């Protein structure tokens, strides 16, 4: 395979064509094509069991595909695994640190495995501990680390060899918001320094924060791909959530918005349980118009927020079907939603395949 240029002329750092991987009767990957342009972040969004970890394992040379091809930084996963491993970093879905070793020892050991001299391995370990705010905990065994600290140690470990291509498999699943923001900031920094990142996630919000482009997969198949903005437009943008100071005003507030007929604002619904009015919006202008309207009508507002569509809503918009294995509720279960029985709604989903890219 020759090195290809992507549509906009950039080089593909990761190039996947027709990738297939079966586990018995389960098609973990069922003909996946994707490209990650050099210096960008591709978000791979999918529910439990979609095939995300299987994809990352193939691209890391940890498992061989049954069919198809993949090149990373120009190296073929099957024919040039050793060269390929030298240019990648991997933060797996499950922390891979040695529990008994300290943070510093873990990083030192990996540096040595990557052929750094003892002096260089120590220096690199200390540099990364500092960068990931682990200097204070450096000498404590990893088993005493919190979930967020382990994730940071894992990320630090994947950076030791200065990889040009980084795989992050659900890097923030199970983390509290503060730690998640720290991980996001670190990923953004890596990208600013020139890394190419393939990031798997179950969170639309994470994809929007970090990714330039998105590939949505389900049951081993790509069901949509394109720029994040295109996909968001496809699924209907954000929901504006407004809580009136007086819950008795909910109905009147929703009616005022619906009846105003603001440009592009279809209407508002009442969420009685949340004591909020929900308004689907596509732009900041629409947000401003709705809030402005409520001000002129004299409504007193206690809270305003927006939220992105959940993975469930994304799937619903793309496929016309709900995910049936609890998307957006990461299970932390190693086998994911391994309930593949080949029947139910999945065959119809293929018929509804949508190409979001322009
Ligand atoms: N080692 C394995 N043996 C058998 N089946 C497997 C194995 N690894 C994965 N599978 C199956 O392949 C499918 C894809 O799994 P994979 O772990 O790639 O999904 P995932 O998208 O990473 O899910 P999650 O979000 O839960 O991590 C699932 O049906 C899973 O049960
Ligand atoms: Mg996984």
Automatic annotation (TrEMBL):
The alphabetized list of GO BP terms reads: daunorubicin transport; doxorubicin transport; response to antibiotic
Q: Which Pfam families match?
A: ABC_tran
In short, the EC number is 7.6.2.2
Keywords in alphabetical order, please.
Answer: Antibiotic resistance, ATP-binding, Cell membrane, Membrane, Nucleotide-binding, Translocase, Transport
Q: Where in the cell is it found?
A: Cell membrane
Q: Which GO terms describe its cellular component?
A: plasma membrane
Q: Which stretches does UniProt call biased (Gly residues)?
A: 329-340
Membrane topology label: Peripheral membrane protein
Query: A GO molecular function for this record?
Result: ABC-type xenobiotic transporter activity
Location of the region described as Disordered in the Swiss-Prot/TrEMBL record: 322-358
Q: Specify whether Thylakoid is a keyword of the entry.
A: no
**What InterPro entries does the database record attribute to this sequence?**
AAA+_ATPase (IPR003593), ABC_transporter-like_ATP-bd (IPR003439), ABC_transporter-like_CS (IPR017871), ABC_transporter_ATP-binding (IPR050763), DrrA (IPR005894), P-loop_NTPase (IPR027417)
Question: Which residue ranges does the record assign to the ABC transporter domain?
Answer: 14-244
Transmembrane stretches in the record are: none
Primary subcellular site in the record, as a coarse category: membrane
User: In which domain of life is the source organism classified?
Assistant: Bacteria
Similarity remark: Belongs to the ABC transporter superfamily. Drug exporter-1 (DrugE1) (TC 3.A.1.105) family.
Query: What protein is this chain from?
Result: ABC-type xenobiotic transporter
